[in-house]
């Protein structure tokens, strides 16, 4: 949010705090999923982490870098089948075991739109069903 309104310094402080909090729970996926929006900030965090002391454990930074490398490799290998932001939203909700109608209600879209997105997700991930899509997305560090 702060980055979007042009306050990069505040955004950087917030990201460092989020990473420090994430270290307690060993949470990485949010940073991986939203990497494209915070890529430049993460580079700054890496620099700060290397030169000064933060509460972010080196182990978490190393895991995050590895997860991001895996995601980048996947994206390069599957450039033609990259999921749209809306498809990613829907895939995350599928992973939460929401039905098509539940997804439609949560995202304020029609049931047919959800079905179309689900069909596209299955095609792009080259799987036959929702559970396979979730498993493959987790393996490929998409979600």
List strands and helices in order, with pairings.
Blueprint: H1 8-25, H2 29-33, H3 35-51, H4 58-77, H5 85-95, H6 100-107, H7 111-125, H8 130-139
Describe this structure in words.
The chain starts with 7 loop residues before the first helix and ends with a helix. The protein has helices at residues 8-25, 29-33, 35-51, 58-77, 85-95, 100-107, 111-125, 130-139. By secondary structure, it is an all-alpha fold.
End-to-end separation: 21 Å
Global shape: elongated
- Percent of residues in helices: over 70%
Tell me the structural class. mainly alpha
Largest sheet: none
Compute the average pLDDT.
85
Total number of strands: 0
Helix count equals 8
Strand content: under 5%
Cα-atom radius of gyration? 17 Å
Low-confidence stretches: none
- Helix and strand string, N-terminal first? HHHHHHHH
Descriptive tags:
143 residues; mainly alpha
Write a brief caption for the model.
The chain is mainly α.
